[in-house]
């Protein structure tokens, strides 16, 4: 019991320090960036008295420690400030844009895992053969080719040239605002509303960005699965299983893979977190109204409250997924309990 309490106390302390560091970094982003939030709010040609009044209202005339204290108090009250561009509270903007990114990232990581894990296992089992070499080249290309290049090629080929895929955006203009906003995840909202035409349209618009993100993620998942699987196949328990005359399927999927699966939990969690915050380029190319596009537009217009709010959300996602992965890891592997 004492050991578990110590472990829990250590975990809480670690999470607390991580969150404190995240809040400090987020605060500093809004203060050390070479952008004057006052000028962004009132404009370049505002009179000096207007600038000074805005500085006073925003609390930027106070010492930096006092500004940080007020920032923390605002966070504790769920206040991320107000966007200069949209005139809305940042938290409501994030609630509007984040589900689109969540939908895209979730679909991409599922596709990447379904394809990447079997490919990694196959490459490890066929180590040194042409199959292994081909899979490694495909994964290398997925890591080497920039995402925006793949996205642009996809649009040019499948939308502009062949005309077999819908254009940028999340929906055709015919279906705009036709589905009630319930969860913010368009596919789920379409199912709840029973609007199957809107559902198929949403799925069609998801295909290209999901495939681009899934290919990028699949390359990493496949490489890690192959590395883990090669190590597992050298284990004594696998050699013993083969000596007993067990079938290759039993040796690979029943004896070797469960040990790999435990390690893949962390890989999948980090991949998912990376997709939630790293889809900026893909969302920009495909005009996907997600958190990445919201963050990019805000940053380009010196709207720092959304930038700070989105950065804080991304950090919380990383922390949350790491905690979830750690909990799952402990359940799957008794040795680390």
Structure write-up:
It contains 14 helices and no strands. With 337 residues, the protein is mainly α. 76% of the residues lie in helices and 0% in strands. The model has no long low-confidence stretch (mean pLDDT 82). α5 (90-125) runs antiparallel to α11 (248-278), α10 (236-243) runs antiparallel to α11 and α11 (248-278) runs antiparallel to α14 (304-332).
Write a brief structural summary:
The protein is mostly helical. Helices cover 76% and strands 0% of the residues. α1 (2-32) runs antiparallel to α14 (304-332), α5 packs across α14 and α7 (147-161) crosses α9 (196-233).
Mean pLDDT comes to: 82
Succession of helices and strands:
HHHHHHHHHHHHHH
Structural class by helix and strand composition: mainly alpha
Largest sheet: none
Layout: helices, strands, pairs:
Elements: H1 2-32, H2 37-42, H3 48-57, H4 64-76, H5 90-125, H6 130-144, H7 147-161, H8 186-193, H9 196-233, H10 236-243, H11 248-278, H12 280-285, H13 291-300, H14 304-332
Q: Which terms would index this structure?
A:
337 residues, mainly alpha, 76% helix, globular
């Amino acid at each position: 019991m004492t050991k578990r309490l110590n472990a829990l106390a250590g975990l809480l302390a670690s999470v607390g320090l991580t969150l404190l560091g995240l809040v400090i970094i987020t605060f500093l982003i809004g203060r050390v960036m070479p952008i004057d939030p006052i000028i962004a709010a009132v404009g370049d040609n505002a009179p000096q008295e207007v600038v000074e009044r805005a500085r006073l209202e925003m609390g930027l005339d106070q010492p930096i420690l006092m500004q940080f204290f007020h920032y923390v108090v605002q966070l504790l009250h769920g206040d991320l400030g107000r966007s200069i561009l949209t005139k809305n509270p940042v938290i409501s903007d994030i609630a509007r844009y984040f589900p689109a990114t969540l939908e895209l990232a979730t679909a991409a990581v599922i596709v990447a895992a379904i394809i990447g894990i079997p490919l990694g296992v196959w490459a490890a089992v066929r180590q040194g053969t042409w199959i292994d070499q081909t899979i490694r080249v495909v994964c290398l290309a997925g890591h080497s080719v920039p995402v925006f290049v793949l996205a642009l090629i996809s649009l040019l080929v499948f939308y502009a040239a062949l005309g077999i895929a819908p254009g940028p955006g999340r929906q055709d203009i015919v279906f705009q605002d036709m589905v009630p906003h319930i969860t913010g995840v368009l596919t789920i909202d379409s199912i709840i509303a029973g609007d199957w035409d809107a559902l198929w349209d949403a799925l069609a618009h998801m295909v290209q960005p999901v495939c681009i993100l899934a290919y990028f993620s699949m390359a990493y998942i496949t490489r890690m699965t192959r590395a883990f699987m090669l190590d597992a196949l050298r284990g004594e328990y696998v050699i013993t299983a083969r000596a007993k005359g067990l079938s290759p399927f039993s040796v690979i999927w029943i004896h070797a893979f469960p040990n790999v699966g435990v390690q893949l939990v962390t890989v999948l969690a980090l991949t998912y977190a990376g997709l939630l915050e790293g889809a900026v380029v893909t969302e920009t190319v495909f005009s996907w109204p997600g958190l990445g596009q919201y963050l990019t537009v805000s940053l380009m217009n010196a709207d720092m409250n959304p930038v700070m709010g989105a950065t804080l959300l991304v950090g919380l996602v990383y922390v949350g997924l790491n905690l979830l992965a750690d909990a799952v890891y402990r359940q799957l592997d008794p040795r680390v309990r």
